[in-house]
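[job 4417] fold queue: 2 targets
>>> target A
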Amino acid sequence: MQWINKLERKFGKYAIKNLIVYILGAYAIGYVLYFMDSLGIAPGIYSILAMDPEAICHGQVWRLVTWVCTVPQSPSLFLIFMFMFYFWIGRTLENVWGTFRYNLFIFMGLIMMTIAPMLIYLITGLIGGFDQAISLSSSTYYLNLTSFLAFAAIFPDQQVYFMFLIPVKMKWLAILDGVLLGWNVIQYIMLAVAAQSPATTVFAISGAVSILLSVANFLVFFLATRNYQKYSPKEVKRKRNYKKQVKASTAGHGGARHYCAICGRTELTNPELQFRFCSKCKGNLEYCSDHIFTHEHKK
């Protein structure tokens, strides 16, 4: 999609490299505070991280950010493997999409899942007692799940070991997760219809909205990156090396982007000239139109 390309050209330089490392770091902080709270070392410290619209409206604005540290799932023996799996998926998506697009995917999901509970809380008229139900639905769990779906959409035949024993292709796990997500939405809708209290209704609606927003975020990027081959790790590396070479040549020749390795002329000193790289010369050397066909190739 053109709008993503335009955003990348304008804001690409602000993209955070290795974003998944910072996300996992936030999870690690969340797990530490979770254990400190559970063991009584610092009672209540974990609860102040959660998305709580009522508390935010009363000044606890840090929750708009700190809810990202809330753990995506309960601690277990497989915690270290969960971190390794998420790291693998995050790094792969960043290599395939590029740093900016992966940043956009993550931050769009986080922003939508931050705005949704706030809107639901405000729409219901700031009625006390609903904030906890909404907070329970503001979790990074579904964002992580849609990252998995994005990976499976790009590499459907990638084989992993389910439960560390059973070899299975990613596409089958993605289909299973898609079915489970759909069933969760249906359950939330059924709960909202049968609810006996407004609080239960809001809880069900916020849960369904969280899932639908995450899936919508995945669908947007899936449709926008169907030509993902142009963002393969090899292509991303090539673009990165090219940018470094352009930057280096610009810094060394008075701000010029093009420089002839024979005569030293640039597009600034001689704007009438055309410049081309020679594919047969070692070192990505560039020549002006007077020397591109007459120079001796550098081996």
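>>> target B
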Amino acid sequence: MLARLLAKRHVDASIQSFVKSLVNILLTILLIIAVIGKLGVETTSFAALLASAGVAIGMALSGNLQNFAGGLIVLLFRPFKVGDWIESQGVSGTVREIQIFHTILTTADNKVIYIPNGALSSGTVTNYSREDTRRVDWVIGVEYGENYDKVEDTVRRIISEDSRILNTPEPFVALHALDASSVNVVIRVWVKSGDYWGVYFDMNKKIYSVFNEEGIDFPFPQLTVHQAKD
């Protein structure tokens, strides 16, 4: 019933999961108090006992209190919301629920991860879904002796053939470094956030295929051995 009411009022999904989790806990506490009253235990005595144990319980649950406060901070400042892809505490995934103590992520391989809200509110969170666009980067190595102008022209042609790559900001291609066994070319393009991985993998395949067709060779690590004369 609560879920339908919140959905009817178009309450944000992040707030919905938090409120439902909080209400469930409050109703459980009220149910316990009601059952104790039915068993003949005076609720005033129980309340006094609960109050006297409050300090001890608070100390024991200090971590959960921090997580509860962290959940409120997450909802207030909204560094992420349900449906966002985030990275924090060494893990990444899509935010499925924001509960009062934990935020639940679903990873790309369908694992479920529970991260304490206290850690999320006080730690570093990378939100990959916050902005509409993202930059995709590659560093491609080619053999020494390859014509760089040909390499750059080939890369720019590949880029122009992919309609998912945005024209603004303009794609960037440059000679990145002269490495020990390769000439490294850096490629940077901007895409819509939802196209990031599709463009990344498709460009890898396209660059490999077209470079082979154009006779542009990829390097292999080489070691020169000098034999000492007797």
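[job 4417] complete. Note on B: The radius of gyration is 28 Å.
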